[in-house]
Specification:
The chain has two domains: about 1-210, no CATH class; about 215-394, no CATH class. About 45% of the residues lie in helices and about 25% in strands. It has helices spanning about 1-15, 215-245, 245-255, 260-290, 295-330, 340-350, 355-380, 385-394, and strands spanning about 25, 35, 40-50, 60-70, 75-85, 95-105, 110-120, 125-135, 145-155, 155, 160-170, 175, 180-185, 195, 200-205. Helix 3 (about 245-255) crosses helix 7 (about 355-380). The longest helix has about 40 residues, at about 295-330.
């Protein structure tokens, strides 16, 4: 039954692509490598690794993680896998799909290849290739159509050639095209002296909606910069609102850190760091236990809230330090306001831009803020109001 179910989808795919099936043989094993040696006209193979070493008198369809065809095929070749290599000639068409596709054997018919990297060194009637990087050098008697980011063309072609290259098109030396050359690329290519085009050469420019590699890099840098600016502005707004709308909470956070006591500051930072590390592990264990799923969801929400508050309060703590040790000396005012929260957030972001050291400082401030918030929450939940006020002002 398993054998029949495995054959049917393969045969259906082969029929759709046009391979005739007058007689078939199918091989599928549990081993990593499959080598076929069959006298049946058509061969269909599916495995993690497929290696064809014996000549195939009919059509071949091979599917696997790695597909290597080291023997000639009298009929058509259909191959799909992570890595596909068709080394020997085929009687008619070759169709190959994979992450890395190499067709070095000549084809009596057309070659159609698609993948991340496509290399075609075999000769064919017509050629169609689609990939991130396409290198075609086998030549053809008919037309050629290639879509890719980086396209390299060499060899002799008897028909028309159409190239769509989003990043770069390279026309190698001693490339001869009997028909017309029509190409779309960011830059116009110069026809080498040793190359020739029998028809007309048409450069259609580049498609505006397909970026080149350089443009993609610029877009990525610009996007990262915009994201950073938006994140800074959002944090500034939240820090200002938190300090302005909840001054009691802000004062509690600041009073827990100032005046600075090294031992207390280290313990608070260790508490915050421990919460950041241990809480996700505990939540995961609750999810795995199935019984604590509801509690895990609640802790996940609280963990997210703690992380966001600590991220914002880190800037508030930086603003409090600046008010205490810098701004007070300039203006003589110790009162912390929402403006100090904004100044501290901007200063912390500026410090975070320092390579390596900036990230460490930002993490330390965030860990201390998390420890302070956790201490305040514990005192609020498990201590009496009088004791809570005493601890606050002690």
């Amino acid at each position: 039954m398993k054998r029949t179910l495995l054959i049917l989808p393969v045969i259906l795919l082969v029929v759709l692509i046009g391979i005739s099936v007058p007689a078939t043989s199918f091989a599928q094993t549990k081993f990593a490598t499959t080598t076929t040696n069959t006298s049946s006209p058509n061969t269909y193979v599916a495995d993690t690794q497929v290696t064809i070493t014996a000549p195939v008198t009919g059509d071949l369809a091979a599917f696997g993680g790695v597909v290597n065809v080291y023997a000639p095929v009298a009929g058509e070749v259909l191959a799909a896998g992570g890595t596909v290599l068709v080394e020997k000639p085929s009687g008619t068409n070759v169709r190959a799909v994979g992450a890395r596709v190499t067709v070095s054997g000549d084809a009596g018919g057309d070659i159609a290849a698609a993948g991340g990297s496509v290399i075609v060194t075999g000769h064919s009637a017509n050629l169609f290739a689609l990939g991130g990087t396409v290198d075609a050098s086998g030549g053809s008697t008919g037309d050629v159509t290639i879509y890719g980011a980086n396209v390299t063309l060499s060899g002799t072609y008897g028909g028309n050639v159409t190239i769509i290259a989003s990043n770069r098109f390279t026309l190698a030396n001693e490339t001869h095209i009997a028909g017309n050359l029509r190409y779309n690329a960011p830059q116009q290519v110069i026809l080498p002296a040793e190359s020739s085009v029998g028809g007309t050469t048409t450069y259609t420019g580049s498609y505006a909606y397909v970026p080149t590699n350089e443009e993609a890099q610029r877009y990525a840098i610009a996007g990262a910069g915009i994201f950073f600016i938006v994140r800074v502005i959002a944090t500034i707004i939240v820090a200002g609102l938190l300090a302005g709308l909840f001054p009691v909470f802000t004062d509690l956070v600041i009073d827990s850190v100032l005046p600075i006591e090294p031992r207390k500051l280290v313990l608070t930072g260790l508490l915050g760091f421990g919460l950041f590390v241990a809480t996700p592990i505990f939540i995961l264990l609750l999810f795995v236990s199935f019984v604590g799923g509801g509690l895990a969801l609640l802790l996940s929400a609280l963990y997210l809230l703690l992380s966001l508050l600590a991220y914002v309060c880190a800037g508030i703590l930086m603003g409090a330090l600046l008010r205490r040790f810098v701004l007070y000396r300039l203006r003589g005012v110790r009162v912390f306001t929402w403006r100090d929260a904004i100044i501290g957030t901007v200063a912390l972001y500026a410090v975070s831009l320092i390579p390596q050291l900036g990230l460490i400082i930002s993490l330390l401030f965030t860990a201390v803020a998390a420890g302070v918030i956790a201490s305040i929450a514990y005192a609020f939940a498990f201590r009496t109001s009088n004791r809570f006020e005493a601890d606050r002002y002690s």
